[in-house]
Protein 1
Amino acid sequence: MSDKESNKKLYKEKLLERQSEARMIRRIVLIAFIIILLIISGVVGGGYLYVKSALEPVDPTSKEQINVTIPIGTSPTGIARILEENGIVKNAKVFRYYTKFKNESGFQAGEYIFTPAMTFDEIITSLKSGVVMDEEVFKITIPEGKQLDQIATIIAEKTGYTDEEIMKKLDDRAYIEELMALFPSILTEEILHEDIKHPLEGYLFPATYPFYEEKPSIESIIETMLGQTEKVLGNYIGLMEGNEIVNSPHKLLTMASLIEEEATALTDREQISSVFYNRIEIGMPLQTDPTVLYALGKHQERVLYEDLEVDSPYNTYKIQGLTPGPIANAGEMSLTAALNPAQTDYLYFLATPTGEVLYSNTLEEHNAKKAQHITNQ
């Protein structure tokens, strides 16, 4: 056989080999595609069946009557949870999404008699006609600028639970994940970051909360407060669009908490906000003392120079930008300021013993004011 014929034969063999490999690859790709399609179909189908089942009555044949109490001030999310706990709906989250989709609201507090055979629409109709209870048993007032351990103490004083019981529930990972499912618009994965000291720090909104039973569960107290946070933050979501620094509820609460902790009664919070924004924009540490105290776990009036060396992701003398999360709760004035900083060139501010806050553009100006108002005190 000549070299030419030999090369031709070799070429044909290689061509057949490549064609065989191509057919094999096509088969593998086809099989992989079919498998992926089956998996997607299974997930979608399973999800559809799950939601379809959750939309149906718990037990269409049941004649059992269940007494359910909806306290005044309970959020729609809290109502959904109460219904699930009492076996009236299969899934609180699905019921909550259903009411949102149907744009249902105006649910009333009261005493209800439900059955597991009721449909969502029947339950919603009943919830709109409740008899409002008007005798509160006690109130819990949460002031602005309180940290989670301080809030736990306030709750404990009113309910008889211990601080430790309350903090244990507030830091319980499994419960936090349940809350994330109940309040997805405000509780995101950000609260589970490894640097976060307490996932719900800053999330229990400062307000006065009435309760209508002698000793409500810790869960119902927490969820009532989170419901108020969800309601308030709903007014700010749209304002975060286009904001590069405060672009999520978590960052909004974080910035607002720093402003709240630095503010005094005489403070223009928008001015303090402008200082924080200006520092972040030029890569300058925020250097705000309350973050140092939070890192140390202390409640004290003054920060010592040695305190500034604490190694913590919350120490804004060591890190740049915002802390991993809020360091306290914040009121609406601080939330508004966090999204609407004044237009200034200020990089420094100083709170005087009288409560006045002085602002400076340069370190020299700041030190001069500090010598005049603080050092000589």
Protein 2
Amino acid sequence: MSEAEASRVIGVAKRRDFLFAILGVFVLVLSMGMLTALIVDLLVDGLARIDYDFLTSFPSRRPAQAGILSAWVGTSLVMLTTALIAIPLGIMAGIYLEEYAPRNWVTDIIEINVSNLAGVPSIIYGLLALGLFVYTLGLGRTVLTAGLVLALLILPVVIVATREAVRSIPLIIREGAYGMGADKWQVIWHYILPAARPGILTGAIVGLSRAIGETAPVLTIGALTFIAFLPPSPVQPEFPFLNFDWLTSPFTVMPIQMFNWISRPQEAFHINAAATGLVLIAMTLTMNAVAIWIRYRLRSQARS
């Protein structure tokens, strides 16, 4: 290739890179602009509605007296159930697939299905839960059923994140641990998992951030649109100090409460829905902030 031809090829490549960078910036600005416009619209409509009474009152047919107490409590309990089911199972499955599973066609099929399940529409999980958990197993339309269906929804995300985090650990760490006489489980438990915790935590929070806003699965299994009572408290003053009756209690969540209010014609209910959306965004950002803080602490401890 002559010098002129090389210069022409390099020039074409630079122009392509420049155009791709411009396109990327345009898409970024457009998406962030839409998100900012949505948040600003919610702030303008609903910020003034958020107060102590709104957070501690039950839903009501009178919009001025309506609140989201049952909705945010239900959301918190469902997310707690989802996290307790999905995160341990996802981590164990990811470790097994990455470290223990034999490399054969069965493992290949499992890996393909895990990746594909991450893109399945959430309504499919709702229909699965309705047929399996509600009708076949008889679990009813309860907090436990909602936690199970949302755990299934985010389980592929946690598995994939765990595998990627474990795979990113340098080989020299494993070789050093084996060289000191550690067996496979000791290497995973004492070296691989601590080093992979930031990546695993990121995947878990991404999954929970998706689950907290899902409406279709919990609506399919029969979450209530109007509920004026709270599930039993998970904590009790008597021994053993833990109460699990809340798992079998009916529930509602904030996305369904928003859907209920936004479908009404009164403008005051639309303001309540905007305020609920702000609270939901605040809960999601809080989860992400906690994850960022924990990840920062873990990385600081690893460096020291």
